[in-house]
Write a structure and sequence with these properties.
alpha/beta; 13 strands; Rossmann fold; disordered C terminus; 349 residues; 2 domains; 6-stranded parallel β-sheet; single chain
Length: 349
């Protein structure tokens, strides 16, 4: 089968990583083309791809023309704008399209035009794939067949060494409003008063970096906070830390949180439905109210002084690799592709 996967860009990011992994899996049995719509021809995928995959960066103006030429048997599209563009570009071509809905649409900062296009075009998809039941509930009214396929969480080669003295907190994510790093930095400034030797390592890039650096300076924690850019080896940096913290306002599937749990890190994350899909408070991690820096600081300080709790939470967290195994992810995607390509679907009529 000829399958085209489409996303705006293949830079660093959770959706980009997931579509790259899906492409690698599908390339074992199918002819896979991975298309980007805003990347320059010189730009290379951040995540390595199987050599059998054809990488095709396109100009938007040539998208429909290229699809006519490629004539894929199926298209799988990731993220809202890509989904809209793909459903418009394939109108009348009789190519089935699966769209991957990554985040609760109510939380995205889109204006009325994108919202209207989304509601109009999404009905043309043969299948909508979401990462959680919470997100599925927001699109069920469209009447399009739905499947929930969580991201895969691999069992890493490295595991955390549980030290008696906590020295390093770590957070990974794009430096933008969604991840709410100001709440983490304010919480950490409280923690530093009682734990001056503790440091916070933040991995990621994004539009709020300069604002975050300025906030670090105002809080007086420049010596304890390091912004370390994008990491190509998240499992290594996670396994070398002591506690993982995420202050995100919302997520699709929290990839960095899942990876931190897989290496056995004790994790603290915001009390959001998508995070609760992974974390049961007090059992395999800790939760705090979204945006509450004082509550986050209190949880961090509690874990700093409780070695047995850190170890217990971290060991329990590793079980996530059984719940979200690559094998389960692959089985569900095979089912999705089968559902999307049966002759009885309306696209073939």
């Amino acid at each position: 089968m000829r399958i085209a996967l489409v996303i705006l860009t293949l830079r660093a990011g959770g959706a980009e990583r997931d579509i790259s992994r899906l492409a690698d899996f599908l390339a074992q049995k199918h002819a896979v083309t991975l298309i980007t719509l805003i990347a320059t021809p010189e730009e290379q995928p951040f995540y390595p791809l199987d050599s059998a995959i054809k990488f095709l960066p396109l100009r938007l103006s040539s998208y429909r023309r290229t699809l006519k030429r490629l004539r894929p048997d199926l298209i799988i599209s990731y993220l809202t704008k890509t989904n809209i563009l793909t459903l418009l570009a394939t109108r009348g071509l009789k190519i089935p399209v699966i769209i991957s809905k990554r985040v609760d649409a109510r939380l995205l900062p889109y204006g009325w035009f994108i919202k209207t296009l989304r509601a109009w075009t999404y009905r043309w998809a043969v299948l909508i794939v979401t990462q959680t039941e919470e997100i599925a509930a927001t699109v069920r009214a469209l009447g399009v067949p739905l499947m929930v396929i969580p991201n895969a969480v691999e069992a890493p080669l490295r595991q955390v060494h549980y030290a008696e003295q906590v020295t390093t907190l770590i957070s990974i994510g794009r430096l933008d409003a969604q991840k709410d790093f100001p709440t983490l930095l304010r919480a950490f400034s409280f923690v530093c008063k009682n734990a001056p030797l503790c440091s916070l390592h933040i991995y990621g890039e994004g539009p709020e970096k300069e604002d975050l650096l300025a906030l670090v300076a105002r809080l007086g924690i420049k010596r304890q906070v390091r912004f370390l850019g994008i990491t190509h080896d998240p499992f290594r940096v996670l396994s070398e830390a002591d506690i993982f913290v995420s202050s995100t306002r919302y997520e699709g599937f929290p990839n960095a949180l899942a990876e931190a749990m897989s290496v056995g890190l004790p994790v603290i994350t915001s009390d959001r439905p998508e995070n609760r899909e992974l974390v049961c408070d007090g059992q395999n991690g800790r939760l705090f109210p979204v945006g509450k820096a004082d509550r986050l600081a209190a949880v961090i300080e509690e874990l700093l002084g409780d070695d047995p709790q850190r170890k217990r939470l971290g060991q329990e967290a590793t079980k996530i690799t059984l719940r979200f195994s690559p094998q389960r992810n692959h089985t569900l995607w095979n089912e999705a592709i089968g559902r999307a390509t049966v002759k009885e679907h309306r696209w073939s009529k």
